[in-house]
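Protocol step 4 of 6: structure prediction from sequence.
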Amino acid sequence: MSRITITRPDDWHLHLRDAEHMRAVLPDTARRFARAIVMPNLKPPVTTTALALQYRDRIRAALPAGAAFEPLMTLYLTDNTQPAEIEKAKRSGVVHAVKYYPAGATTNSDSGVTDLEKCRGVFEAMESCGMPLLLHGEVTDPAVDVFDRERVFLERVLAPLVERHARLRVVLEHITTREAARFVATAPPRVAATITAHHLLINRNALFTGGIRPHHYCLPVAKREEHRRALVEVAVSGIPKFFLGTDSAPHARHTKETDCGCAGIYTAHAGIELYAEAFDAARSLDRLQGFASHFGPDFYGLPRNSENITLERSEWRVPDELAFGPDKLVPFRAGGKLKWNLV
């Protein structure tokens, strides 16, 4: 197959940053995706409906002329979030989920939740109005190895949460392990997961090939090859609980190439092409449309997009770096070749 046409996809996990940095990266996403769930971990975080509406206005104002793209907003869950704010967010019609970060787990997560018990009333409000909870699924216990943080999260946090809140809709984001894939596959239909392109394409060796590779560092970190293969297996399975979420996370080059580099991989420049490569390698291009274009909106209760996009097998070179406001960023596969191109 040298050409494939699919329903225009959506990105169900995206970082856009803000201001001039947002204006630099937004066109890459808007060219490929019709909608995206936009992460709220700005500085300061997007913790209220009012802040989400303001952020949405800034995103829409930054869109290239003629771009057809809808940002789907989220709230940043804190220890102090109130049930009334959830109800207000639902009524707004533009806030589509609430994001849980364990405090200190990843970029700009310092305001995250310290104890889930403090959020019980919020979760009950989310159950009542059907608002999904998006989870960064890692524990931050320093006694837990960084490569085990997701597995331990399943046992300590997610399993009890799903059992305690029997109507809560949950998305375990950017899963990286065989255990997470199995958990979601066997959980009730109200539990889903997003999978990034980079976790389908690289394993943890990519962090150390020829030396430290900071532009392959993300959280959760890539795992062993057996886990990558497990992710590919569920991504191409046709199980509607698994869908596309790039977790594209732009950082300036100098903040990655430093003694304490930021976690995040920028993939929006090839946001659908990278998935096509992964599905092609698995001989499953016929399953790409469901994963990229159908299962996400079905889970969120939104209509599927009506327009199409076309990809062709055509090799192209990824730039060594891209403009990022006053800075530069290094995209995934910088200086390398990609096998699929958006027509």
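Step 5 (inspection) to follow. The chain has a mean pLDDT of 96.
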